[in-house]
Structures are given as C-alpha cells and as structure tokens.
C-alpha cells in the first residue's frame, strides 16, 4: 500500500496521542480510546493519569507538575531598600538623641538644664530614643524573643514621650489654675512627684502588654496570603510575628489616649505668660502629632490588604 504522504512507515492507529507530563486525560464520552489533554494549571498538579489536584496551602507544584514542593519563605532583609532607609534615619535620630542626652548629663547642674525640668527631659529623651531603636526590632528576623520585644517596645517609646509631656502640661495647668485661686502651690509638682506620676502612667502600658502576653503568647507565623501570586513559581511565604493590625492599634491605643489628653491640656495652657515658654512648643507638638495620627490610622487600615503594603 502506498501512502499519500510518501512516508513508507505505517501511521499510528490511535485516536489520541499520549499526554505530556503535567497533563491529564479528559476522555471523550462514549469513546474510551479517545481523549483530550488538559494541562494542570495554577496550584494544581497531576495526581493521576486522569486527575489534577490542588497542592496544600503552604506548597506549590514542582516544575513538571507531578508533585508539590514547599513555597519559599522570605523575610525583610537588612540590605533591602525598605530596611536601609529606615535604619539610616533611625541611626541619625539615635545619634542626635544621644548627643542631647550627653549634653544634658554634662551640664546637668546648670540653671538652663534645671529650668527645663531635668527629670522629665530625661524621660522624654528616653522615649524618643526607644522610638528610634524599635526600628531594628521591626527589621530583625522574627522569632519568639524578637516578637516578645516588639510587643514590649512597640508602644513603650511613645508612652514614655507622651506620659512625660502629659505630666509637664498637667503641672503647668495646675500651677496657673491654682494661682487664680490662692498663692498656695498645688500638690505634686516636685520633680519626685512628677517622676512618680509619669512612671505610673507608663506602668499601665506595661500592664496591658503583660496581659496581652498571658492571653496570646507571642509566636511567629508564615503568611502565604500576601505573596500568593497567580504564578505559583513566584509564590512566597512571609515570615512574621503573629500581630494582627487590630492588636497593633490596640497596643498603640493607650499612647493615643495619652496624646489626646496631653493635647487637651496643651489647649488649656495656651494662654500662659510668654516668659513661661515651655507650654507653647508642647502645644504645637501635640497639634501636629494629632494631625499625623489622624492621617496614619486610615492609611494604615486602607492599605492593609494591598499588594504594595
């Protein structure tokens, strides 16, 4: 028999050719010898000759789609631009804050340092230092220890700062309110009393953190949702501390309360004499801080599900 193609070999007497690796057979109804080859797509792999199955959530199909392999786990690296820029700014802040602290210590007994309220100034500078230092904990590789320190120091720096400012503005307010009524000085305006009030406010923040430790012990989690792309080969899992957005805001909530209360006292003390020049800078600081927080909260929650976060 001569074939029209001129090829002397016999043509294959089959309805369908074998499927390639990673493809399943979809048999034509009523014709068991005929099938269509369909590729396993997405996060599916070839489980058998006729079926594709979905890989477990923390896994993706291998190159041949004949099985599943674990998804690569990533974290924020120190050499990443998202880490380098904050670390650089934090280092500048830490150097500047340390310079001010050293200057205060060196001239600790001078009239200018005494007039500024040495004790509250040291507490305020400590809070500012902690706010810059928390950057390194936020970038460090998450583990139980790092996650525990993040919970403790996340809101502690701002709590130190706002507690010191609140105590100072409250003291100014009480002094001038008492001056309208009598010449007797109000109670609890000595440096020792100011420190006791400040650390009492800070202890509430620490108490809340320890309750958080008891209710939900710190641990790490791998989040596959944020980096689970359409292309399984590009999928990644993000190693992070198990701190939800709501828990993060709740941790900062007490600091926000201190800030709002301090702002109220700053408004009340805005009319103090010009010679008492401490109240107005505090007031200006609290007004701008409120604006920053009002912008931060909606932006933070509005971008919590975005791919760019």
UniProtKB/TrEMBL annotation:
Pfam families: 7tm_3, NCD3G
Main localization, broad class: membrane
UniProt membrane topology term: Multi-pass membrane protein
TM region positions: 82-102, 122-142, 148-167, 246-267, 279-301
Taxonomic superkingdom: Eukaryota
Domain annotation G-protein coupled receptors family 3 profile: ranges: 82-309
Cellular localisation: Cell membrane
Record keywords, A-Z: Cell membrane, G-protein coupled receptor, Glycoprotein, Membrane, Receptor, Transducer, Transmembrane, Transmembrane helix
Protein name (record): Metabotropic glutamate receptor 8
Species in which this protein is naturally found: Ataeniobius toweri
